Amino acid sequence: MGDRWELGAAAGGSLLLCAALLAAGCALGLRLGRGRGAADRWALVWLCYDALVHFVLEGPFVYLSLVGNVANSDGLIASLWKEYGKADARWLYFDPTIVSVEILTVALDGSLALFLIYAIVKEKPYRDRVAWGE
């Protein structure tokens, strides 16, 4: 019962990076959403944050996994994935299933987020059909 919970430097850096991406996504989404309704502004906030996460966090994971592995890599992004790897070692070493899913996530979801941002900002008539599958 006397054990204290401490946040390690790597975990703290990971949380700080995620918070910075959230702040950047909010700032960018609100800036792009000026003069639009609340629903469009918050959709832009979410889509900007989503795109940042896919390209800034998951993209480097794919790269690190394809050129080596996360366990032997250095840097802030590698430390974030090493923290994640403490719970599931498949994220530390090349696992074809995990890397395949992440490649699809970065390429498709990240690109779709950018496409939807463009559609909302340019007020394209197809934006709702793409976003909601109507």
UniProtKB/TrEMBL annotation:
Q: What is its main location?
A: membrane
A Gene Ontology MF term for this entry?
cholestenol delta-isomerase activity
Q: Does the keyword Membrane apply?
A: yes
What cellular component terms from Gene Ontology apply here? Answer: endoplasmic reticulum; membrane
Source species taxonomy: Eukaryota, Metazoa, Chordata, Craniata, Vertebrata
Where is the protein localized? Answer: Membrane
Q: From which organism does this entry originate? A: Saimiri boliviensis boliviensis (Bolivian squirrel monkey)
Q: Name one Pfam family in it.
A: EBP
User: Which keywords are on file for this protein?
Assistant: Membrane, Transmembrane, Transmembrane helix
Q: Which gene encodes it?
A: EBPL
List residues of the EXPERA domain.
39-134
Q: How does it sit in the membrane?
A: Multi-pass membrane protein
Nucleotide-binding is among the record's keywords: no
Give the matching InterPro entries: EBP (IPR007905), EXPERA (IPR033118)
Q: Which domain of life is it from?
A: Eukaryota
Protein's UniProt name: EBP like
**GO term, biological process aspect, one:** sterol metabolic process
Family, according to the entry, reads as follows:
Belongs to the EBP family.
Bilayer-crossing residues are 12-30, 42-66, 98-121
